[in-house]
Amino acid sequence: xxxxxxxxxxxxxxxLLCIGKVKSSWIAxxxxxxxxxxxxxxxxxxxxxxxxxxxxxxxxxADESARLFAAAQKFDGDLWILDERGKGMASEAFAKELGxxxxxxxxxxxxxxxxxGLTDAVRSAGKLLRLSDMTLPxxxxxxxxxxxxxxxxxxxxxxxYHH
Length: 163
What we know:
By secondary structure, this protein is of the alpha/beta class. The protein has one domain: Alpha/beta knot (3-Layer(aba) Sandwich). It has five helices and five strands; from the N terminus they run E-H-E-H-E-H-E-H-E-H. Strands 2-1-4-3-5 form a five-stranded parallel beta sheet, sandwiched between helices. Helix 3 (91-104) links the parallel strand 3 and strand 4 (108-112). Helix 3 packs across helix 5 (138-157). It is globular and about 45 Å long. The relative contact order is 0.25.
């Protein structure tokens, strides 16, 4: 497979901001695996913010959203919000977007909310990306996103991971 892009090796940082630690062992293992793969080829990191202690779901969503948004403000570059209301994107299209950002030297920050999602204020702060037409648990979304980020990077590299 030929390369879709020839990255010009400008500096690019990718950060995933998310809520809470993964509790399911098999999901945690998948997250660890893809994070390690990504860290070998990219300036990549996952930042986990503690889950809210609020009992009410609306207050929990508001608390977590505010903290995610405040953390995102510390990073330069484009902000992408992972949300079920976002635009769906095929792996190749996501790779193209990632390749453009890399070629331009733009850093990317992705936000993944907790179990109750994100507020409208956070959703309106960046580009919305939907991982699936189906509703998925936020822990599963994390490993799914990490795999797709890895896949996009491998598409750009022309490694053959994506057939």
